[in-house]
Design goal:
About 45% of the residues lie in helices and about 15% in strands. The protein is an alpha+beta fold and about 425 residues long. The protein has a five-stranded mixed sheet, sandwiched between helices. A four-stranded mixed sheet has the order 1-2-5-4. The chain has a two-stranded antiparallel ribbon with strand order 10-11.
Length: about 425
């Protein structure tokens, strides 16, 4: 019997969403995400989630009204995943693999990865661009900070169910694709912490640098980091078999500030179906070719993208396709900058910075003196003789308006948010 008999999937998408995926396979894959999202929105949620789940004993004791389904026996890869949530364990778990029945199993943390990269991993392609030590250090630092964020949430009144009690959850995305993974935590908002009937929410913890953290606070995960929203959506549907509000908690690795956002249940449901539609392309590919390492699905990103440049398979996938670009020639009237000149410029910069700091301090002191002069005389404005001419000094009252982006993001869907909140970028030199 053909293992890849085209039988109905347990999670059938609407016909329109399926046809979009198949057209994208034949055309440019980069049109898939936008079209699939529209088709999934039009098709609407489909019933019938399949979510075999390992049981967390402490969760059952504390939340008897939320009994997850018992899962089947763990595969060797799943047993390895359950053995620990350490960085070393994370390194050893593949992003994707084929089980004994040639079904494709994908890690939740990799479900938004490039589909060709997932195929390379599942079919055992040798890595050509391994991560460097710095990348592992950054990843391990992020993992180490996850319990710090959860403890901070607990001190703020959140009811947190510890990550060590989180089971491996699994959900069948389509007939031959399953996604599994460990939620970072489950919990309750402080206002619901003492309500025994309040539904638990998945908590997905992330660490961000200062700029990405600010971008996330302003735009929300669905716009700034859609992979985090997709993960939270998967964990929610896998753990509870229904859409629920989900929480993204994040820490600024520069200031150690933390914050959170709540993604409403209807948008969690939508994020899940967009991801499901996207992965359906791999289902179609698998049904057509089987687990053939030489039959590659289309890639999702352009060779010049940051996703491609960081891909562990870049050399074998994209490098042969890159056009030969001649080295950019410097302008004729500019001489190349030597290292000695750069060092001299840095020394000048350091001296100027020290002078500026001193001037700023003196300017602040002078400003405070002038302010005290007006306050002591109960004046709003006064005229004093300057070095060259009389000058007016005054106390000016200003008003600033702030936006509660957390509230804004909870009310607006991602597309509307993009229309309201514009983003611009610039480049500058930073000396550390």
């Amino acid at each position: 019997m053909n293992t890849y008999d085209n039988t109905p999937t347990s999670q059938a998408l609407a016909i329109e969403a399926r046809s979009v995926t198949q057209r994208a396979n034949q055309a440019n894959i980069q049109t898939l995400d936008a079209e699939a999202a529209k088709a999934a929105t039009k098709a609407g949620p489909q019933p019938g989630f399949t979510a075999p789940m390992k049981v967390a004993s402490e969760t059952q004791k504390e939340r008897p009204h939320e009994q997850p389904n018992q899962g089947k026996a763990a595969t060797p890869h799943e047993s390895q995943a359950q053995a620990g949530r350490t960085p070393e364990a994370a390194r050893s778990r593949p992003h994707a693999y084929f089980d004994e029945n040639y079904n494709l199993v994908i890690r939740a943390s990799a479900m938004t990865n490039c589909r060709r990269a997932l195929w390379y991993t599942a079919t055992g392609q040798e890595v050509t661009n391994p991560r460097d030590d710095q990348s592992y250090t950054i990843m391990e630092a992020g993992t180490a900070l996850e319990p710090v964020v959860l403890r901070a949430m607990s001190r703020s009144g959140w009811k947190i169910i510890s990550p060590k009690d989180q089971p491996l959850v699994s959900i069948k995305i389509s007939g031959h694709i399953t996604v599994n993974g460990h939620p970072d935590a489950m919990g309750l908002h402080p206002q619901d912490a003492n309500d025994p009937e309040a539904p638990l929410s998945i908590i997905e913890v992330k660490t961000r640098g200062p700029e990405p953290f600010k971008r996330w606070q302003t735009l929300g995960s669905e716009v700034s980091h859609p992979d985090a929203a997709a993960q939270a959506a998967f964990y929610t549907l896998a753990a509870y078999q229904e859409p629920r509000d989900a929480v993204i908690a994040s820490m600024n690795t520069g200031s150690r500030e933390w914050d959170y956002e709540v993604i409403p249940s209807h948008r969690i449901e939508q994020a899940f179906y967009v991801s499901q539609t996207r992965l359906q392309a791999l289902e179609d590919h698998l049904l057509e070719f089987g687990p053939d390492p030489t039959a590659l699905p289309d890639y999702d990103h352009r060779p010049s993208s940051i996703e491609c440049k960081r891909c562990p398979y870049f050399d074998i996938c994209q490098k042969p396709n890159l056009p030969s670009i001649p080295a950019e020639q410097p302008a004729m009237n500019l001489e190349p900058v030597s290292q000695e000149q750069a060092v001299a410029a840095l020394h000048d910069y350091e001296e100027l910075q020290e002078s500026i700091r001193q001037w700023e301090k003196e300017k602040k002191d002078a400003t405070e003196t002038l302010k005290r002069y007006l306050v002591e005389r109960d004046l709003k404005r006064a005229k004093l003789q300057g070095k060259d001419k009389p000058r007016s000094i005054s106390l000016v009252e200003t008003h600033r308006f702030s936006t509660d982006y957390k509230q804004l993001n909870s009310l607006l869907d991602p597309e509307t948010r993009k229309e309201i909140v514009s983003e611009s970028s610039s480049e500058y030199l930073r000396v550390g």
